[in-house]
Amino acid sequence: QVQLVESGGGLVQAGGSLRLSCSASATILSEHTMGWYRQAPGQQRDLVAAITRGDSTNYADSVKGRFTISRDSAKKTVWLQMNSLQPEDTAVYYCNAHIRWTGYDYWGQGTQVTVSS
Question: Which residues pair with 35 in a beta bridge?
Answer without folding.
Answer: 50, 96
